[in-house]
Write a structure and sequence with these properties.
With about 280 residues, this protein is of the alpha/beta class. The protein has a single domain, classed as Metal-dependent hydrolases (TIM Barrel, Alpha-Beta Barrel). It has 8 helices and 10 strands. It has an 8-stranded parallel sheet with strand order 1-4-5-6-7-8-9-10, sandwiched between helices. A two-stranded antiparallel ribbon has the order 2-3. α5 links the parallel β8 and β9. α4 packs parallel to α5, α5 packs parallel to α6 and α6 packs across α7. It is globular and about 50 Å long.
């Protein structure tokens, strides 16, 4: 086998970041963006590459849900010097199963259903079944941004579409507390072999020496028990995470929460993302 044919190895020092965002609110306004959030008005592919100096590629998740913004994101991704795949955000529309999106963009790897304001059973989100069917037909992934109480609905959706790879953002938790309900619901979701999750967006603070607190270690340990190492993905949630710590610190803290075998977790640090997102 030639060197070019050897799959790249991934580790904390050479990772693929499966969850970042790019935007320019002066070019394309974002409805949720507020000055008090302390975020830069403009974060581009070049800014990501400066912040993530050891990264080997990234998955950029659309920050809002308009066609205009996704078109901007596609153009911006073309300026990246590292491989980049895109996940568009689902917005129901009259033109097909993908809502306002179309599955024709070269870098489109999947669609995210951001439903944190929906009902627990997701019954008020239109078009979920056609979305899942269309993604599976086109070889794309479904991402889910959900509250913990919505995980049973996610598990049911995954069960109905066993051919569709699904990826849960922020392990279905984010900054919420990891309680017994989340523990049980995550395990039920993970019981389906087409279910995956990103360890992203869960770091609330960083201790001295880039240590991980008990909360974060517990989250990572439970996720590993549920999914196994091969169905978990690393995501920084940059630049949102930059309000907590620089990108390299997010990587280091995640690695410490993972444990002593973090350097050998090839799937977590990038191989699984390469497979799911079609790098």
């Amino acid at each position: 086998m030639s060197d070019a044919a050897v799959p790249p190895r991934h580790s904390p020092a050479a990772h693929l970041d499966a969850h970042v965002h790019l935007w320019d609110v002066d070019e394309v306004p974002l409805p949720w963006f507020r000055a008090e959030l302390g975020l830069a008005r403009r974060v581009l592919a070049a800014d990501l590459e400066r912040a993530d100096v050891t990264g080997t590629g990234a998955v950029a998740v659309q920050a809002a849900n308009t066609l205009r913004e996704f078109t901007w994101l596609e153009d911006e991704a073309a300026t990246a010097t590292r491989p980049m795949r895109l996940v568009g955000q689902y917005e129901p529309g009259p033109d097909g199963w993908a809502g306002v999106l179309q599955p024709r963009w070269r870098r489109l790897a999947g669609v995210r259903l951001a439903a944190t304001s929906a009902r627990s059973d997701l019954s008020d989100v239109p078009g979920v079944e056609p979305l899942a069917e269309g993604l599976a037909e086109h070889g794309l992934v479904l991402e889910l941004l959900l509250r913990p109480d919505q995980l049973p609905a996610a598990a049911a959706l995954v069960a109905r579409h066993p051919e569709l790879p699904t990826i849960l953002c922020h392990v279905g938790l984010g900054f919420d507390e990891a309680d017994t309900n989340w523990n049980r619901a995550l395990a039920d979701y993970a019981s389906h072999p087409n279910a995956h999750a990103k360890v992203s967006g869960v770091i609330r603070h960083v201790g001295a020496g880039h240590t991980a607190d008990e909360r974060l270690r517990g989250i990572v340990a439970h996720a590993r028990r549920c999914f196994g190492d091969h169905r978990l993905l690393f995501g920084s949630d940059w630049p949102m995470s930059a309000r907590v710590a620089p990108h390299e610190v997010i990587v280091a803290v995640t690695a410490r929460a993972w444990g002593e075998d973090a350097a050998d977790a090839d799937g977590f640090w990038g191989a699984t993302a390469r497979m799911l997102y079609g790098f």
